[in-house]
Design goal:
The chain has 288 residues and is α+β, with helices and mostly antiparallel strands. 31% of the residues lie in helices and 20% in strands. Strand 3, helix 2 and strand 4 form a beta-alpha-beta unit.
Length: 288
């Protein structure tokens, strides 16, 4: 029996908590599950010699993806891929790691830390449960990483960073400014018609600014889609609708099975919605 702290667990299944971090006794079957883990998009295993700096990359990558689990204290033979349990001698042995983690990924809603103990295995394995965070997390080197498969990939390209921001809801395509004449939305037929229904009455430009649809005299994507008379001229190929119908029982249609040339529906968002519904209803009603 290997037990660095035998007084902690008089029986299997016991739990002891210290400084907000639990020590959980697990069964041999649970140990086997951990050692059988295949590293992937949601889980990673590391040896205790892995530097805290490198471990922060894994935690940040999981945070910026869909979350997951990180086990520290599991060795892996690179040739055979066989994993063995070799944890920290005691809680204090993991202090250097925990100090770094606490600074970047504090214990709380997004992160949970547990020490796993088994009476037949050496040391304590540190399990970190990572949730998908609402903000973008960086590693100790201040770089952004993203979990893809079993890799922690750096994200340095500004376009990829912007995509990540959108995925997390920190920004959106709709709020981006569009380089065009603001009169496209401030003096369109649609905005004038819309403003007649607004109470109290206001000038289009003033109202659009208050709604954050006009920024630095530039309309946002949302403003163009909603109020421009021809938004497709300003945002080509990104705000129109095409209606297709395929004469086939296959799960996916092909060009050869098209019933007719795709119908393009353009205009502002309000008009597109009404026209798309009408066109769809017309097609369905024509089908026996």
């Amino acid at each position: 029996m290997v037990d660095p702290q035998p007084e902690l667990f008089p029986f299997r299944g016991a739990i002891k908590e210290k400084s907000g971090i639990r020590i959980v006794a697990i069964s041999d079957a649970e140990v086997s599950k951990i050692l059988a883990i295949d590293e992937g998009h949601f889980v990673d295993v590391k040896a205790i010699e892995t530097s805290p700096a490198n471990l922060t990359r894994a935690i940040a990558a999981l945070s910026n993806a869909e979350g997951g689990e990180l086990f520290i204290g599991v060795d892996e033979n690179t040739a055979t891929k066989k994993k063995t349990w070799r944890g920290f001698a005691n809680q204090e042995a993991a202090n250097a790691h925990l100090q770094v983690f606490e600074e970047l990924f504090p214990l709380g809603t997004d992160y949970r830390y547990d020490f796993l103990w088994s009476e037949h295995q050496p040391g304590l394995v540190l399990k970190i449960q990572v949730a998908k965070t609402r903000d973008i997390k960086t590693a100790s080197n201040r770089k952004i990483y993203l979990r893809r498969g079993a890799q922690n990939l750096p994200v340095e390209d500004q376009n990829r960073i912007e995509i990540l921001r959108r995925d997390k809801g920190l920004s959106s395509f709709e709020t981006e400014p569009v380089i065009c004449d603001p009169s496209v939305v401030t003096n369109s037929e649609h905005i004038i018609t819309f403003m007649l229904e607004v109470v109290p009455t206001a000038e289009p430009a003033v109202w659009l600014k208050k709604q954050s649809l006009l920024t630095d005299e530039k309309p946002t994507v949302a403003a163009v889609v909603l109020f421009a008379d021809e938004p497709q001229a300003v945002l080509p190929k990104r705000c129109g609708i095409k209606v297709y119908r395929y004469k086939t029982t296959d799960a996916e249609g092909t060009r050869e099975s098209l019933d007719f040339d795709p119908v393009s529906i353009e205009g502002c968002a309000y008009d597109q919605i009404h026209a798309a519904v009408q066109q769809t209803a017309k097609i369905i009603e024509s089908v026996r």
